[in-house]
Amino acid sequence: MKNILMPIAFLAGILTFAQTEKDTLKSKEKAIEGVTVTVRKPTIESKVDRTVFNVANSSVLAGNTTWDVLRMTPLVSIDNNDAIKAEGETVTVYINDRKSVFTGKELKEYLKTIPADNLMKIEVITSPSSRYEATGSVINIVLKKRDDEGFKGSITLNNRQNTKNSQYINFNVNYHKKNFTQTLIGSYANNTSVQSNSSIQQMYEDRSTTFRNSKTISESKSPSLSSTSEFELNGKNTVGMILEYYQSNSLSNSGADGLKYINGDKFDNSYVQSQNSSGLNRNFGTNLFYKWYDKEKNKILDINLGSNYYGNFINDFFVKSIIDNAVPPVIQNQETGVLTDTENRNYYVKADYTQPLGKSGGTFEVGGKMDFNNNIIPNSLYGNMLSGLSSHDVFHYEDNINSLYANYSKTFFKKLETRIGLRYEHIDYTIRQDVAGTSRKDSYGKLLPNILLKYSFSDKYDLSLTYNKNIWRPWYAEFNPFLIPNSDGFYTRGNISLEPNPSDRLYMKLGILKKYFISARYMFTDQDYWTDYITEGSKTISQESNFAGKVHKYYVFANTNQTFFKNKFTVNVGLGWYYIDNSDFNLKNKLSNADSYISYLSASTNLSYTNLFNKNINISAWVEVSNQNNGNSVTNKPNIFHNISATKIFPKTQMEVSLQLMNIFQRPNYDATTYVQGGTFRNASKWDWYGASISFVKRFGNQKVKGNTKTDVEKNDGGGK
């Protein structure tokens, strides 16, 4: 950690000295976007219900994708399975207030196709209003909106050197004429990544220890295209259409080996395995929208009608050789192929209405959504060793989620801001397998209240309190009970019996001088589903399972955002302390060796300097220390990420050149132990997010940008949508 912080501290010292010398000269103001800005929003804004990462015109965007910038966003962490979390809790991702249909690795691949140059800001909404679907915290990715006349846009070329080399190109074209706006975004990526994994499995019953190692090299070629058309019928009515297409062709190969001992040190068996995989996935999304906005009365009606299709075909082939402890040893050669052809269809209609209530100063919101999903996963296995495995089945998942919500916001005495909301969600879902005949049909409804209070003692001090009740539902694929092998020698399957996880969250935040913020959070749940490992014969199976038991989580976070040298140098520092009481959870699930009380620190720092030496050079640095403690999995050591980048802007030619160094002092890794009733599993992963990249950007046309805010009635201090 010291080796990482010292170079960045040294860098900050150089900048401070350089600026002191330069401030003796007369400053020349130039109207160049993203070069010299004397008045602008702080990089990090801490509001009552959210933290906002204002990245527009920031050097952090250069040469990155939206996925890369999301990694650097305060309060956000991403685990080894590409699951996005905020303050350690699973989140739902929205893009321009439209819920993404992706999750996990699918969401990662999609966000990698959105160039970071399109980003306006990223909102981490830790206390969302009832407008948002009730799944805990929300991340809203807000894109730029260009509304100046004529054609304008940019082209970006990027080359990234990690373990292997990757290339990326995108174009962004916008046309605006009177009442019509058209935006086209296209990209093509040829990415190669390398990941290494190792695990130690210890089982209590036979005192066995199994060591596994694997390494996977993956290559993907991913074109994408999105179109947004918007037409203002008149001063109050707007209609539009959003079309999105994404495709990825992937190839990967991996090698794995394992060694098992029983009764302490007696050899039981060993194996080596190779895997070759190919895949093709496609996504096509449509969204028709209509918006009526009365600017004088601040009334808004927003209607969205959309559909999403996702198809993913994967062909995996495993060759595995097993040597047992017989005398002489017996060698088994297994060849297993897995064919998976996923098809997901989603349809939705959503309506939201907002208006002020008379002269009282209150604002009322009401809305609802109907969501239909029809998902199918056919799985087929082939090969010479399918003992204990089903050769074919088709998994069906269908659901209908209907929701209604209402929010009321009002400020009393010019000091007390309030928001009260109530959301009702009802789900009907059906699960079945064609061959095994396994099925489940269920439905339930939930009332989910939320309350927000904020009191401003003065312009310098304020205190806020929020309460949210949430519910997190299993992802459809986590229900699929079809058993398949995976790259490290384990087997995986879903669990048709998974139950949702409801939780209660209480959040308090103190603001001092509008620069210093201290927040505290308490979260309680008495059931959840987490990763479980089950041994069946010679197979070790990973699946999600229901876990009962109370869990209390406490969290204290301190944050400050400072600007120096006429707003050119921005520093944001955050420090968090977590305390988790798992005592009841461990007792009820018989996790005897797991720690009942877990405490750990997290920290992050963002530094940025604009127009260094008045030479149109922007630089930025980021460091994060994170831990990934999730339910029955406990981190063995913290993970450290860091990034340093510099961008040179050429105003006359509207070109930019950026150099980025990623995790050059320490390669990212994941190391955690998962506790189950029968034993422990320690898993370690080394990621490929390190090295260097260089990018070139050519802009054309007028680059004036309008902030893409939803409405004028949205409250800037956090009480709004």
Q: What does this molecule look like?
A:
This protein has helices spanning 2-22, 66-71, 104-111, 583-588; strands at 44-46, 50-54, 76-78, 84-86, 89-95, 98-99, 119-125, 137-143, 150-161, 165-177, 180-203, 208-232, 237-262, 266-294, 299-324, 331-357, 362-383, 392-412, 416-433, 439-456, 461-472, 484-485, 491-492, 501-512, 516-536, 539-564, 569-581, 597-609, 617-626, 633-635, 639-650, 655-662, 669-676, 679-686, 691-700. The protein is globular and about 85 Å long. The chain has a single domain (37-700), classed as Beta Barrel (Maltoporin, Chain A), CATH 2.40.170. A hairpin with a 4-residue loop joins strand 11 (180-203) and strand 12 (208-232). With 721 residues, it is mainly beta. 36% of the residues are buried. It contains 4 helices and 35 strands. The strands form 2 sheets. The protein has a 22-stranded antiparallel beta barrel.
